[in-house]
Amino acid sequence: METEMIQNYVEGSIGWIVLNNTRRKNALNNDMYRCILTILEEYEKDENIRTIVLKGNDGNFSAGYDLSQGLPDPYRNFVKSICGPVVWKLWYCRKPTISMVEGYCVGDGFDLAMAADLVYAAEDAVLGEPEIDFFFTPDYNILPCLILPRKAKEMIMLGTTVSGKEAAEIGFINKAFPREQLEAEVGKVCNRIASLPSETVEVAKVGLNGAFDAQGFRNALIYGEEISIYNGLLSKTNPKCELFYETIRKKGVKAAVNLIRK
After folding, report:
1. Half-sphere exposure of 151 (CA within 13 A, CB side)
2. CA distances (Å), 15 to each of 18, 46, 105, 220, 227, in order?
3. What distance in Å separates the CA atoms of residue 209 and residue 218, rounded to the nearest whole number?
4. Is 98 helix (H, G, I), strand (E, B) or coil?
5. For residue range 124-172, what is the model confidence (pLDDT) as tens digits?
6. DSSP string of 184-249?
7. CB neighbours of 11 closer than 8 A, spacing ≥ 6?
8. What CATH number is given for 6-182+197-260 in this structure?
9. Which residue ranges make up each domain of the chain?
10. CA distances from residue 234 to 71, 130, 240 in whole angstroms, order as listed
11. Helices in the chain by DSSP H: which ranges?
12. What is the pTM of this model?
C-alpha cells in the first residue's frame, strides 16, 4: 500500500513514518491509515530498526480525520478495520513507538498520537478531542486512561484543547520542548533506546502493557470503539448532522462549525 500522503524512511536505527497530507494539515483518510499499518508491520520485522517515530510534515501532526470525505460508511468497518488496527499496532508493536507532535494534533490525529508508547510535543502544539463539535465522540478511550477523570470529561465533553506545555503538565504526554528543539530531543530518546538490549526493551514493553491491560486499558479501548460506532449510527439519523456534513462539502469545515454554533 503506497500513498504520497505518507512518507517513510529509515535513519540509522529509527524508522520514520511521516504524515504528508499538508494541504489539509495532515488530515487522515482511509488510504493513509492502511499505508501506516503496512509500514508499521514492515518496521516491526526489521531487526535494524529499534524505534518507530510518527510525525507530520509542514508544522502539523494531524488535524484529525478528513471531514471533506464525509462520514465513513459503514462506521463499524472504519473503526474495526481501518483506523483501529493502526491504533492497536502502535500500542502493542514489539518495537517502542514515539509520536513527535507539532502544531495541530486533534481528533483522529490525537488518537493516533496517543497510541504511541512515548509522546513528545512542541510547547505550542494544540492537542485534544474536539469531536463533539462534529457530532462525534473519540474512537478510543485512551485519554481517560492517561489523566484524571474530571480533566478527561472536561476535554471530551466540552471539546477543549490544550497546549503541548499543558499536556505535559497534565501528564498525557512525556515532555514538551520549544519547537526548534523537538526533533533533536526525540533523537536523544531514540539513541538511548538503541543503546539498550533490544530483547530487554521488548520484554519491558510487554510487561508494562500487561499491567495496563490488567487495570482495564484494553477493555477501555474496546468499549470506546463500540461507543463511537453507536454514535456513528446515531449521526445517520440526525438531520443537523446531515446538514453539517453537507455544509462541509459545499463551504468547508469552518462554515459548518459556525453553522452549528449559532
Report:
1. 14
2. 10, 9, 21, 29, 33
3. 9
4. strand
5. 999 999 988 888 889 888 999 999 999 999 999 999 999 999 999 999 9
6. HHHHHHHHHHHTS-HHHHHHHHHHHHHHHHHTTHHHHHHHHHHHHHHHHHHHHT-HHHHHHHHHHH
7. none
8. 3.90.226.10
9. 6-182+197-260
10. 12, 18, 11
11. 30-45, 75-77, 84-92, 108-114, 142-146, 149-158, 164-170, 182-194, 198-214, 217-236, 239-251, 253-260
12. 0.94
Q: What is the pLDDT of residues 174-228, one digit of tens each?
A: 999 999 999 999 999 999 999 999 999 999 999 999 999 999 999 999 999 999 9
Q: How far apart are CA 1 and CA 82, in angstroms?
A: 13
Q: What burial class does residue 199 get, using C-beta atoms within 10 Å of its C-beta: 0-12 exposed, 13-18 middle, 19+ buried?
A: exposed
| Residue length of the chain | 262
Residue with grid cell 502539523, as numbered in its chain: 60
